Amino acid sequence: MNYRRTFLQALLLFCGERNIDPQRITSLSGISLRELNTKTKFNLTNQQLENVWKNIVQLSGDELIGLHFGATMQIAALNTIGQIIQTSNTVKEALQHACSLVHLITDFYTIQIEEKTKTFTITFQKNDGFDNFPTARNQMGDFLITFTLYELKGLVLENPKPIKASLLTYKKIYDREYQNILKCSTKKNDNYSLEFKKDYLKTKIITANYEIQNLLIEQINKLQNPTSLNGGFSKKIFNFLIANSYLYSLSIESVAGNFNLSVRTLQRKLKEEGVSYLQIVEEVRKSLAIHYIQNSTSSIKEISSILGYAEPSGFVRAFKKWTGKTPSEYRHKYK
Q1: CA 334, CA 245: separation in Å to the nearest integer?
Q2: How far is the C-alpha of 282 from the C-alpha of 229, rounded, in Å?
Q3: Contact 182/253 with Cβ under 8 angstroms?
Q4: pLDDT tens, residue by residue, 258-282
Q5: Residues 38, 180 within the same domain
Q6: The domain that contains 269 carries what CATH number?
Q7: What's the DSSP call for residue 204?
Q8: What does the alpha-carbon distance between residue 212 and residue 295 come to, in Å, rounded to a whole number?
Q9: Can you name the residues that pair with 110 across neighbouring β-strands?
Q10: What average pLDDT does range 103-116 have in this prediction?
Q11: Which residues pair with 321 in a beta bridge?
Q12: Whose CA is closest to 286, among 328, 334, 327, 236?
């Protein structure tokens, strides 16, 4: 599989969802969009990647777009994550395998895992020889740190929070956005890093999320654009959540940031269509819950955790409110 081609396709799709024209990005970057989408052996050079990231930052006006993209890349990375899950039993093993796979996506960084007495650190070490591609290297670093964090959330039935993070591109004016995305204190450093409690390395990973990821990617077109929502913007938010929030609960701040909007503007645009953000989140959970109960073999506990419920009992109550049946009763009915 050509992972760099898949990465660029996913990045352009992400930009399209933010109303940044992929055709314009590729044209300005000296890339044929038609060849990218039709040639499986498409070769992406580092200079082309530098041009792509420069144009995306300029057209979006978003210096943190690499961070935002990293938090929404799960579906495009399914094949890589599948390899990791199939060959790993614990978080430590999964990270060790991820270290050997990062070169499939980028030449700019090497991943290192350092264990200490009570903590461990994931460091994205800059590789030498790529100073001529500063924008691409910085944005790829931003992407990798959030991508890794959010993929870790998809490997276990919990929401791991870093103790602290370091960014090569750190700017104090973005402290609030760093907190929204990374959920920890952030500082500037020569490399990117995430530090966690050491006990997390021993955590068993689950296969249920990979089953659900595959199930979702196969059926995502059927789940998008629900008839229960009338407005175009509210459907866009719903589609974004369906595609990206099945592994964790996205805050309204994170969603607004991914659309390059303030929370107030997002709320106003939804209000104009007669719907609130919480109503859309509820509709997403309902759609995914019914879909997973009908089509997957995952346990009620696993599904409730993936959908963001702290306890299975809360999920069971919500499901019964939506359908009039408990998840177990509903699954038995549709077997």
Answers
A1: 25
A2: 12
A3: no
A4: 777 888 999 999 999 999 988 888 8
A5: yes
A6: 1.10.10.60
A7: B
A8: 9
A9: 125
A10: 91
A11: none
A12: 327
